[in-house]
Structures are given as structure tokens and as C-alpha cells.
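User: Here's a structure from my thesis project, written as C-alpha cells. My advisor, Dr. K., wants to see whether a designed sequence matches the one we expressed. Can you design one independently, without my sequence as a hint?
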């Protein structure tokens, strides 16, 4: 089975690649993340993913379409996270279908900060809409492996999902703890 794997960043990819290989799945990563702000952070994560892909020997399709306007126009405050996930997975499902992949998946479910129920619901809706299979798996048990890999290989690990709102929330928490910003 050939799978297009939406890849949010290098550290998350490093944690799930072994599972895809153990299952005997043929996969290609796909970097599409218009939620990441600022652009320098977007580029930093893209370059880190390139390094992880080099170390772990896997192919990645890079969407250089930093479609911030679509991302900003796509959500209301109460649905910000679910719409953000949906946009990225929908683009992945569309591309997977267009390129003849059998299924699509994501690395997002390795993060303890991402809502698994939202990811699962997006997969189900998009699978039906585009008539393509999906692979949904809770990869959280592999999260510590991704941290170890990143530390061992000097890979940057970000402290927020990527959007400006989550960055703001992260900075507020740091300030409340008395951490240097």
C-alpha cells in the first residue's frame, strides 16, 4: 500500500517512520503547513524535516505554498484547531488521490497536544469525500522516541504547534512561570 504521509515537522516524522516501515507500507512524506508562523519558523521546520528525511532515508514532497491567507480565512476562534487540521489533511487527501496513492495519513497524532478525535473525524470525512483510504493511528506511544531521536541528532524541536495564536499562548505560559522570553 502506498501512503502519502502528511508531515508536520521532522521530530514528529522521526517518531512514526519506524511504524510505517514495520508495517511494510510504502510512504512518501508531504510537508504542507500554512499554519506555521512566522515564515522563518516555517522555513526552519522545513529544513529540519529535510535533515530528518536525509538521516532516515525517506522521500518528502514539499509544498512551498505557504497559504497563510487561506489558513487565516478558514477558521472562527472556536474551531481554529479543527479547521487548521482539516485544511492540511484535505490538501493531503487531494494530492494522494491525484498522484495515485492508496491512502493518506499524518504525523500529527504523535503529539500529545493534538486532538486525536478531531484528526480521526477529519480522516473519516475526507476518506469519504475523496474516496481514498486513510491510516489513523494514535502514535503517542512513540512520542518519547521522537524526543530521543531529536536530541541524538541535534534536531530542533519547536514549543508550539506553529500558528501565531499557539505561539502567543506558549509565551504567556512562559511568562507566568517566570521563564525568559
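Assistant: Designed independently from the structure alone:
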Amino acid at each position: 500500500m502506498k501512503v502519502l504521509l502528511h508531515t508536520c515537522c521532522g521530530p514528529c516524522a522521526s517518531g512514526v517512520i519506524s511504524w510505517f516501515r514495520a508495517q511494510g507500507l510504502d510512504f512518501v512524506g508531504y510537508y504542507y503547513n500554512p499554519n506555521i508562523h512566522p515564515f522563518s519558523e516555517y522555513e526552519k521546520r522545513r529544513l529540519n524535516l529535510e535533515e530528518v528525511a536525509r538521516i532516515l532515508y525517506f522521500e518528502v514532497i514539499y509544498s512551498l505554498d505557504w497559504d497563510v491567507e487561506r489558513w487565516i480565512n478558514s477558521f472562527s476562534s472556536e474551531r481554529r484547531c479543527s479547521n487548521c487540521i482539516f485544511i492540511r489533511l484535505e490538501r493531503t487527501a487531494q494530492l494522494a488521490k491525484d498522484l495515485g496513492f492508496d491512502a493518506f495519513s499524518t504525523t500529527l497524532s504523535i503529539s500529545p497536544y493534538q486532538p486525536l478525535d478531531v484528526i480521526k473525524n477529519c480522516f473519516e470525512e475526507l476518506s469519504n469525500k475523496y474516496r481514498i483510504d486513510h491510516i489513523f493511528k494514535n502514535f503517542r506511544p512513540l512520542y518519547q522516541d521522537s524526543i530521543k531521536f531529536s536530541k541524538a541528532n541535534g534536531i530542533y524541536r519547536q514549543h508550539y504547534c506553529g500558528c501565531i495564536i499557539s505561539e502567543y499562548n506558549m509565551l504567556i505560559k512562559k511568562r507566568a512561570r517566570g521563564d525568559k522570553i
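When you compare it with your expressed construct, this may help: Strands lie at 2-6, 26-31, 60-62, 103-106, 133-134.
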